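Quick one - first record:
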Amino acid sequence: MRPASAVFWGAWLCLVLLGAWDLFLGNEENRCGMTYMFEYPEYLKIKLPKKISRRYPSYEVYLYGEGVYAKENAKLELTGIPILFLPGNAGSYKQVRSLGSVALRKAENIDLKFHFNFFSISFSEELVALYGGSLRKQTTFVYECVKAILQLYKGQDFPPHNVAIIAHSMGGLVARALFTLKNFNPHLISLIITQATPHVAPVLPVDRFIIDFYTNVNNYWILKSKELRNVTILSVAGGFRDYQVRSGLTFLPRSNSQHSALSVLSSSVPRCWASTDHLSVVWCKELILATMRAFFDLIDEDTKQIHKDPDIRMAVLNHHFVRHPAKLFEDRDDTVITLSGSSIWIPVQTSKWTYTVNKESNETFFTFLLASFRKNYSHFHCQNSFMYTESWIYGCKNNGSDKCLTVDDLSWKTELLPTIKAATLKLVDYSSLSHVVLHVPTTNGTKFTMDCEFFNEDSRTVHVPVTHIFSFGLYSNKVKLNSTGLIHNVQLQHFNQIYQAFNILVERHCQSVKERKLSVYRLRVPWSHEDSTVVSSDSLSTGIPAKLHVAQPVNDSSVITLILYSSQDCQYEVIVKTSFMQILGQVIRFHGPSLPVFIVSNILLAYGGQLKALISKGHCITFDLALEGTARPYKIEPIIAISKFLLGFNWFRSYWNVLLLPELDAIIQTSQGVWFPLASLFLLVCGTGIAYWFDILFSALLRLFSSLWIALKRPSALPEDNKILTLRRLCLCVLLVILGLMTCGAFALLLVYLHYIFKVIKLYSAVRQSRCSLNMVAEVGEMSNHSKNESIETCGPVNSSVGEEQHLSSSYNLLSKSDMDNAVESLNMHITIMNLFTWILLLSLPSLIYWLKNLRYSIQLNPDPCGPVAIILVFALEMIMSSSITSIKSSILLKTASQLQLLLAIATVAFGPMHLYRASYFITVSLFFHVLCCFV
């Protein structure tokens, strides 16, 4: 190992680790409260028809209950509204308890006027995010469960005709897949709420079954969007704390988002305002409360079921998950309300006004005559620290000051924020109103503050260009807000891409320290519901991380705005600085799952360099030297960029389609808005560094195991060149293939891998022992001829008897320098092939784990994503592990094989980032040509 190379590639590895640190540890702390069960949770197993139980022996469905409620449901005489919970990858049916318990407590608070029956499905904690072969089976089982659940309500006065679904992670995709089933009645499902579900694409596409399932589901929902407009879908993402499923994958297709689909982040949900990790999204108290409040508002009092009108359902979801108007949900009918009685009416004629109550006060109305302010001001803003969920602001048409006849309830313009509720009105939109009335209810001794002002929008809006990503945080852009108003808008120009990340520092300077109020800062992203809200701390400065989950759409010209709900006695300074750490975190978040593809590409380049060295130098160089000489991003990146450009022309795309080539993954990433400029270049260099240190780790493990082998058993002499294809080896290959077909292809690959690594350890040990023999006979501390392989260290002095020295002397006479060189070169080649084979095994490991976990139900994995590849690799690797470098040197296909590796490396980067399983195909082609070189 060269020190300079180790330092250089170690630096790139540190960059990856820094990005991972920001991804996993650099996010905000968990601010979710825990949900608790006040009674012991019970799960009643629902008996399904025998044919369903036999068809799905590992799946079950349960009814959740607690205490007396669980005992009453033991006879399955259900009268509630059915909700079905679907767990996700490796999820448990018991995850429904948070939803079920909170729903039960809320139902008891209204004397069980309405209540819900929560059902939950057990998928035996299958790893469906890593193995897509069971997704279709889960979907058909859910369909059978929906029909069985509705059968339980027959004979009621108001029997439900559909089931609402709440699904976590991959369960949300299964819920949407229900509609793709043949003969499925779409009226059976009216509402779907998904939690941290990757709707756009799988996180780790390690087999083609996952890709096919996603393609089928998403294409169906796009093509049938008009037919499915009566199905309401809400997708809730966890935000930046969810490092398993990035939130950009949870946003539903835009063709549905305008009609019956809504996508939000938990950090933007009113009364939640907290980012959740992938598991806490199912128990986060604030989010669960918002969900159950929405469900109770979704109930139609006439039918005692969930509303059939999709517009009402969307209005409820917007009320609880997008913009909470600080009041209980109600229909937006224009009603006439007369505000009169013994209340106190106070006219206000100043442009800035503050009302504070520290003790009990009576009901009061404050009226603002708009005619006196319209000429000088464009907006009216008011914020209230009294967190009542009541109407508090009204618009009036009459000119009286003691009574007010309202025709437009402006409370719907109110927005609930942490510590305050605020309303901002554009006066030109309410030209028919004569007054704005603020309602202050009886305070009952609670401290209450209300601040209002008229202002011009231009005076409260400033524009700040964000710093360039290559500034590395060395300089910043600043803006001072000299106005002492209640609200300020700081528009962040040129902030629209996911690879941008900034630290925003808001410094405030208040005149009165004792009366200083907490300010609220909201980073508003206009093209998606991913706003983040931060409450200022007691310190004078507050940091706000600014980064995106979804890039700005092409036809969208809106600007991200930092809204400051401030105090009148404070002045503010906003500092914007690029955050290099967060940029690395964004790269890992969006492209980290595809990093194995770039590592494999570098190993293929190194393998090609070894083959070229055989042609030019006559010997096989080590992996690290080959990697340094061949791992050049300019060999790959320009080809992909040119192909991506040419695919924009119809004539080139026609030739592309004739060759039956798939779509470039870079084009798919661009369409999804996740493509980074220079992202592929960065990942290729990082992949080189990881491949370099991966080889060092692998070589260190070989030294360790070879030392153990030498200690346990003296290795035999260097292996001789034998026939590659023998009857015994052929029978072993056939046996492994049959075993793989009858069980799991990944299991057969694991057996071949263990066999291969055992032979490499034996060869490594033999080479080390032979070198020791040469050293002892020559009586020198180091070999006189420097070895080409610096990664294999010579052994130290060995104490031996006279008989052993004579034995070693005879061994030395039989051992020639060419034999030693061939053995070392063969070892170099086998180490590189083992590096490639290790990544095949890692990519096939999910199916192996799934098979082992479900072995009690079936001995055969069906469908098997590794089956075809395993058949080829079993034969190829059993022959390769018995070959030597001499069989490759004389091959007429050696030049072709060396040139092929570059093409395979390019193809891996071109078609592998969004389809990880394809990397195994390209490695298989490379190893297949290696076998051909052994025979031809």
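second record:
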Amino acid sequence: MGVGVAGAIFGQAMLYHHAAPFVAIFSLMVWPKRRHWYAPLMLGGLAGTLLAAGWLSAVVLLAWGLVVPLPWYRPGWQFLRWPLLALGAAGLFLAGHAGTSYTLIVAALVAAGSILLFFLLSRELERVLVGDVDRRTLVLALASLGCLIAGLAGYQIFDVNPSLFFGALVMLSATAIQGPAGGAVAGATLGVTLALRGGSADVMVGILVAGGFLAGWLGTKHWRWASVGLVAGVLLYAVFIQMPSPLKPFWVSMAGAAAVFQAVPDSVIAIARRWAESFAGVNARDLLGERMTKIADVMREMARAFRVDEEIQAPETQLVQSVVESVCKKCSLYRSCWEDEFYRSYRGLMDLSAKAEDAVVTDEDLEGDLARRCIRPDAVAHATNLAMNREKERANFALRIKESRALAELQLTGLAQLVAEMAQDVQATPTVKRRRWRVEPLGYRVGVAKRPRRGGVISGDSELICDLSPTRVVFGISDGMGVGPRAAWESGAAMSLLEQLLMAGFSQPLAVRAVNSTLLLRSVDDHFATLDLLLLDQEARQMEIVKVAASPTFIRRRGHVFEVRGHSLPVGIVQDVAIDPITQPVEPGDVVVMVTDGVMEDDQRSGEARLKRFLEQMPVGDPEMMAEALLSFMLGDSQDGRDDALVMVIVIGAPSSVAPYAEQADNGAVPEWQRITPISLRRG
């Protein structure tokens, strides 16, 4: 009903007594987005055009409206909407009028202006739907209101002109929110809109700009004074410059709008001002992204500082100096050995030091001139052994320092890369996400079954079920290195960190890279875990799957089972993990099965085939029972194997519910992997 009324108003808009193209512009915007609005908008537009411009313009609009679906008939034809709009706008303007050179030029300008307005409004609508708005949004919203006010100009209720009444309310709102500039712009827009219908442009534009400016100037003192300013500005212009015509409807409409505006509560104006200020404000996400980028740069500079090696004196030189200081300088033959025969003495100690690297030396190991001249060979040998031991300790210590510095450089570089990726993710994510269409969200039910290895008590496999928003939920399983408590800690820590990152709004690929960096930086030993994630968008009816060294995911749809695979190393092994998200549509009745490799431990290929056959024949019921049945079937009579095993079953299309184990975790129960760790890693 409302769409049809709007179409009728747009249809009555005129451009110097010619039909305006507003119905064509807005109907072309409605068709690809809300097709159920198209028919009432066109019917209302036809009625309005028939009343305002005559039957010939209505016929042109009807013929044009029947051709509108053509650009969407085939995927590559959407470029046709541009010439289609130009022909429709020019045809409406020329219908019923002589095709003189002047009217043809004006029609071409009208067609070009229609294309420009359609482009701006369509682009702004796309930005509004994702929450990306600024002052341009306000300007184009005012232009849309101007199109509506142009259609109202043909009405008059008693002595009230609806276009002037609603236009004055728009002016007063703009002055209260944006001050004199807002009032003047709104007044000029309203004046031009009314003048294009066929009135006197200089009178309408001038009088309304004057009223809007004075309303904005007084509105800076207090917003309620804007009404006084509007009436005063219009009165001054009418008295000193030119009277509007017709006089009585003009004054009644303006005074009525001023009176209605006075009844608006203060809280509404305060909210409107904050909303308008948000358009010009700096995006907090951009500021956060810039700060995170700077932090990443600082970390990189710190990493470079660890690359500088200290200049250390050669070890053999230090060793010779130590022996000379402790023994030779106290000997009576010091001048003879180290001034007259420096080179031979130095070479003798160097040869002795070389022997000391492999074994303890004695006075018998001295050779050549040094052995013949030295009167304290036993002291020299003893000092050489002591110096060599100290040098070996110093070398080992320097090596440990170098390794620590290299590790610190690696850790800082990894953290810098992670922070930089987070900054990019923050800046790339829209502040507010809104869906274009409201689709009934799909429900789900989920169940999990798991077994420890044969003879084990703790399962090394962990699971994750986390609601990120009312319509987005993530499911995950992880298999830690090995079995038992250590594997449980690895996989559980990965799941816990993933949950916190995803809840913070980061994407799945970035969250996986963050977990990988954390496991790499935590220890120099090899500790890794597989990750198998599924992000279900219940409203968009699709799922994003991220697999890191995980077993295939099995999807049963309409009785057939297919697999989704991924190829990458486990997290915690290499610095860069290849993340390639896989997007799949979701239908009501789908069954998704996620497993760890322990479920198919004997033979991967034959195990996958057995699971697919069993899943095809399994009746859909309680997901907890389905998971237990799958696990029992795959493990056989022993009910356990050489590795930990876990099965997660997700049934799509049923009312949302979580299996009992997850409900217990939400009620405060400690997850299995945390019971074996001394410190809780997940925030309670």
